[in-house]
Amino acid sequence: MKKNQQNLFLLFFTLCFGQYIIAQHNYGEALQKSILFYEAQQSGELPDWNRINWRNDAGVNDGQDVGLDLTGGWFDAGDHIKFGFPMAFSVTALNWGFLEYKDGYDAVNQTEHFKRNIKWVTDYFIKCHPTKFEFYAQVSKKGQDHSFWMPAEMIDVHPQYGQRESFKLDTSHPGTEVVCETAAALASASIIFKDSDPTYSATLLQHAKDLYEFGETYKGKYTEEGGIPAVGTYSSGGYEDELSWGALWLYKATGDNTYLQKAEANYSEPDYLWSFVWDDKRYGNMVLLAQITGKQNYIDNVERHLQFWVDNGNGVTYSPGGQAHLTQWGSLRHSMNAALTALIYSDNIDSPNKQVYHDFAVDQIKYALGDNPNNRSLVTGFGVNPPTKPHHRGQHSSWTRSESIPEESRHTLWGALMGGPGSPDDVFVENRSDFQANEVACDYNACYQGVLARMVMEFGGTELSNFPQEETAGVEFLNETKINSESGRFTELAIWLNNRSAWPARIPGSLTARYFIDITEGVAAGYTPDDYEITARGNGSATGGLQPWNPENNIYYVEVAIDQNNMPFPGGQGEHRKEIQVRVSVPNNAPENAWDPLNDFSYDGLSNTLIESERVPIYADGVLVWGIEPSASLSVDEFNKSGLVVYPNPSEDVLNLSGNTSVLQNGKIVVSGILGNTIYSRSLTNTIAGRVTINTSDFASGIYFLNVITEEGKRLTSRFIKK
Question: Is cis: bond before 47, omega within 30 of 0?
């Protein structure tokens, strides 16, 4: 179906099935964010120019198993494996788009951002190439990494994850496609850096030449002869296309016709029914050869291939909303890759179908950015109603290693192209577990970015100023506390210190919690703070006896600290929190009136059910990171100090509350059970004569807590018994 027929079809679809909005997108912003995505993927000790405040160093031990520094590079997708093959393709594809459409990057001030992100990976490739015929093609593997749904920063921490293994190609274990693709990446990068850093450019070019010679001399598939464990993720389909592809980029970098001859000698005509992707460079080869040589056979090959993409009805399947849908896995990646090759070809070759190919690319990028029946962007952090649940461990930042906890992702992942609809029906369902439609990846963004740069050149666009802003951290540390047991002389607590850190995920140097108590009744009975007994067990200890907080008012605290070898970290259900049990007591021979926890700041709201208790604050490296302290809140006074009286206690059918009229004005009463569940509540409005009556006839027999919450927010608590 030709272009006008496609438009008539879309018009018919719109009239019949609803409207979708055709928007003018800010291609400059989209380009800016597409670059930033790669900074979220950085592995190793992060550079000071990394702009993602929820990321930190990760994979800092890579290469130690072989005595080398193999840190750096990019994590592949939503996981933390460094797959050299698609990583190299991503660099080459990015460089191709940049070299063709650099004016688009310049127009929105993204050139330097682009170059330093490319250099981050080319530096890594140099590390992976310690000798002429050795290349480390992968770090970690599926069996190790994919069982750990956690932030990247935890891969060096989790004891079950283990040392990341480095996988090498050499003369006995060749991987032609990987080393030739890496040669293409380095050769194309050498062109980019030739003027700004000629020394570095020359280094890149020499590595590219050596790698190409390695691949040409010692032939083999990297997942077969090379033994690299990428089968099922990035299995090799052959290496002849990479021999041609690598030679083409070496020709472009050197002008040496020998490389052009090698490229043509290794060129193979494809079946035209796929796209330019990480494992199939034939479609890139034909475009470059048509562009470089002008030979008709290459031009004919490109035309036949692009006709497959634009001829709806005899080629790729089109969705009703206009997506050229090749396959269910990463469908947008394929349409974007085809769009880039269509643009580069139509911009450089005088084809009678030039406009058709151009319009195809424009339609596909607009679809991805929001011109689709769902009226939503399919790029994270961009446009209208963008996806927020990509299959991406770091962006989600689970502390339990669960894809479903928390339900909402904790971070914004800027500028990542989603996999896209699984079928040619425009249906896209956000589902973090559906990696075919919801994963993002370095190679997905590569050609997409080049298309964006071309759109900037044609349609304009602006970058966002002061972007990105640092994310505001959410809750990272908290306590869960419950009463283990209690008597007239002690209270024993279970305190679970949680590490749910994500800005970035980390293990602090120390993690402590404080339980605040009021010892007024003990002092009245003749005891001093030194007379109180503190015992602790579990994953930590009490750091001393009672420590003063507001000694003038008899406010002290018990501090518990996690042992250094038991520190929680956001890496699993059992790893992210650790328990300390602590008992605070008066001497066994003390009278019962020497101990009353109801006036204790931290006791408020506790029961024998574990709850998040802000009144048991938590400190990381000595700094308050969650919860409230008595000095920062209205303390819980003793009930009788307020002038309030509860009677009869025990009660049968009626409980009376009387006393200070000002306290009982416009506040609230809440009665809770021993488990912390609310049994009864009511608002207090213009209480007459300072008295409130509560009907307790329907209350079951047992112990209850009566909470009076004043208009100012002060909470006064008393305990009563229902017969």
Answer: no
DSSP letters of 119-177?
A: HHHHHHHHHT-SSTT-EEEEES-HHHHTT--S-GGGTTT-TTT-PPPEEEEBTTB--HH
- The pLDDT score that the predictor gives to residue 655 is 87
Question: CA angle, 140 as apex, 573 and 45 as ends, to 5°?
Answer: 85
Q: What is the CATH number assigned to the segment(s) 639-722?
A: 2.60.40.3080
Residue 641, H or E segment: none
Q: Which residues are catalytic?
A: 76, 79, 234, 439
- Single out the residue of 250, 136, 244 nearest to residue 190, CA to CA: 250
**Cα(285)–Cα(114) distance, integer angstroms:** 24
- At 592, the pLDDT band (50, 70, 90 cuts) reads confident
User: What's residue 705's pLDDT?
Assistant: 77
Structure tokens of 585? 């007591």
Q: Is 477-632 in CATH node 2.60.40.710?
A: yes
Say yes or no: do domains 3-459 and 477-632 share a fold: no
Residue 28's closest CA among 111, 118, 120, 116? Answer: 111
Q: Where are the domains of the chain?
A: 3-459, 477-632, 639-722
CB contact set of 678 (below 8 Å; sequence gap of 6+)? 670, 671, 672
Which residues make Cβ contacts (< 8 Å) with residue 255, sequence separation at least 6? none
Cβ–Cβ under 8 Å, residues 347 and 306: no
CATH number belonging to domain 3-459: 1.50.10.10
Q: How many CB atoms lie within 10 A of CB 297?
A: 12
Write out pLDDT tens, residues 313-367. 789 999 999 999 999 999 999 999 999 999 999 999 999 999 999 999 999 999 9
The answer to whether residue 634 scores a pLDDT higher than 60 is no
pLDDT bucket at 674, cuts 50 / 70 / 90: low
Q: What is the Cα gyration radius of the chain?
A: 33
Q: Which is nearest to 59 in space by CA: 186, 192, 165, 168?
A: 165
Contact 39/60 with Cβ under 8 angstroms?
no
In angstroms, rounded to a whole number, what is the distance separating the alpha carbons of residues 184 and 266? 15
Least Cα distance to 34 among 380, 413, 395, 415 occurs for 415
Residue 693's pLDDT band, with cuts at 50, 70 and 90, is: confident
432-438 LR contacts (CB < 8 Å, sep 24+): 432/389, 432/390, 432/391, 432/396, 432/403, 432/404, 433/391, 433/403, 434/391, 435/78, 435/391, 436/328, 436/329, 436/330, 437/328, 437/331, 438/387, 438/389, 438/390, 438/391
**Tokens 């459409």 sit on residue:** 101
Q: Measuring CA to CA, which residue among 590, 592, 579, 596 is closest to residue 517? A: 596
Sorted by sequence, the CB contacts under 8 Å of residue 462 that are 6+ apart come out as 26, 28, 29, 108
